[in-house]
Here is the input.
Amino acid sequence: MFAGLLDDGERARAAAFQKPHDQRLFTIAHGAIRMLAGREADAGPAELTWTPGEHGKPELMPPWSGLHTSVSHSGDVAAVAVTTSRPVGVDIQRVVPSLDAAALSARFFPPSEASYVAAGRGQRERANRFARLWVRKEAAVKSAGTRLWPNLAIEVRGRDVVTCSEPAGLHRVAKVTAPGGYHAAVALAGPEPFAMSVNIWAGSGLARAHDPS
Here is the structure.
């Protein structure tokens, strides 16, 4: 179903994954973004084309350039986002209890966030705190359409609006409900509030929920 929607480049990227599971997840994620964007654009999903933007993030080409999209996948779950007005970034991450979250946070996060992660009781809680912050950072960076590493030091804990450093700009970030063992967040460019309509597909059907933020 989804494979037939992808273009040659996407099929090549899917095939480059060594594990069939990863190939399938990539195919589902990119097929889903085509379906959702096509519905908003009143276009066939397979018709849509993307091109690298100024900072490398894929952007829809005319006549669909008024839409903004973002894709993320981790573990067994994918997340996709489509907006009709502002650049968007979405990120989902599986919590990895074996991760040395305290050391990574001390290396990349600002001191207050590194201390928050290190204060978690036990390795699992530290990994949980790390993932919760990570998705907010990555969502904002994807909204900005830029690289992650120069922006890992941005402060996101307890903030609805965060400031990316490269390129400089404000982004509103919100939590997205995710399955157990995962964290997810979405960000839109600019500080203005937004509302989400969340679709959850678990293989047996599609459920819609309105999630204001």
Summary: Residues 88-212 form a domain with the Ribosomal Protein L22; Chain A fold (CATH 3.90.470.20).
